[in-house]
Design goal:
Layout: H1 6-19, E1 23-24, H2 26-33, H3 37-49, E2 53-58, E3 62-67, H4 69-87
Antiparallel strand pairs: 1-3, 2-3
Amino acid sequence: MAKRDKLEIINDVLRIIKENHGHIKMTPLLRKSNLSSRRFADYKSELLERELIKDINDKKRGREILITEKGMEFLEKYRAIVNFVSEFDL
């Protein structure tokens, strides 16, 4: 199995959040993204810095990661790029 590159990992993390109604607790996200805690922490920091996700602490639901509108835009544009590359067999 080939290693995922940085953009694939970011896409996977954002897609997982989106597929869970736009929010997910940290442990399931970590497990579903198939990243070590250390690597995930690096990606989480970058995603927060780029405002693709938010880390919130809700009194009712506890701590969760949410996808932002900017994160949703990333998913759309990433999918368009992948489709373009596939269409031209690149």
